[in-house]
Amino acid sequence: MPDSQYNEVLIVLIACIALFLVLAAIVLLFLFLHQRRRFAQQKHVAELELQFREQSLKAQLEIQEQTFLAISQEIHDNVGQILSLAKVQINVMDAGDHLDKGLLRDIRDNIGDAMADLRDLARSLSSDRIQSHSLEQTLAQEVGRINKTGLIRAEVIVTGEARDIEPRKKLILFRTIQESLQNCIRHAEATSISILLDYHHQDVGVCIRDNGKGFDTEAVMQRSGGLGLSNIRTRMRLAGGSSMVESVLRQGTQVHLSIPYE
Prior knowledge:
The chain is an alpha+beta fold. Helices cover 69% and strands 15% of the residues. It folds into three domains: 1-35; 59-125; 146-262, Heat Shock Protein 90 (2-Layer Sandwich).
C-alpha cells in the first residue's frame, strides 16, 4: 500500500477513534449528569417526605392537645356541674328527716344526664367511630351534643351525593370541624350554627357558619400570630386541601374547608 493511502487510512482510523471517544465521553457525561440529577431528585423527595412526616406529626400532636383541652372543658362545663348539683341534692337529702323521693328522682336523673354526656363525649373522641360512620353521621352526633345544651341551635345541611373519604383525611377534616365548632361555642357568643356539607366531583366542601360577634381576622393574625387560624390552614394543607376564614364584626364567622376524597 502506498504511503499516501496508508496515511489516509491512518488518519481516518484516528478520526473514527477520536469521534468514538468523544461520543463515549458525551454518553458517559450524560449518564453521570442523569444519575446525579436522579440522586438529587431522590434526596429532595426524601427530604419532602421527612418534612411532611414531621409536619403531620406536629399537626397530630396539636390536634391531640386541643382534643384534651376540649375534654377538660366539656367535663368541667357539663358533667362537672351536673355532678356538683347532684352532690348538693344528696347533702340536702341527707340533712332532712325523711326520704324525699322527688329529690331522689332528680338526683338519679342528673346522674343519668352526666353519664349520657360522658358517653357522648367518648363517642365524639373515638377515631374508630369516626371511621366506621359517614362524615354526615358523625357531624349529626356533634350537632346533637350542641343542641342538648339548649343555648345554641345547630344544624347540618348536606348537598350532593355522599362519597367515601380517605381515612386520614377524613379524621383531619372532622377534627378541624370540631375545633371550629368549639371556637363558635366558646368565643363567638353565637345562637345559631350551620354546617354546610357539599359533596363535589373532586372534593368535599364544608362551611361552618355562625351568627356570633365575629372578629377582625387581620388583627388576630397580627396580635397573636393567629395560631388557631394557622392550625386550620396547616391541617388542610397537609391533607391536600384548602381553607379560608371570613369574619365580620357583629355579623358572624364562616370557616370554609375543602379536601379531596383521595
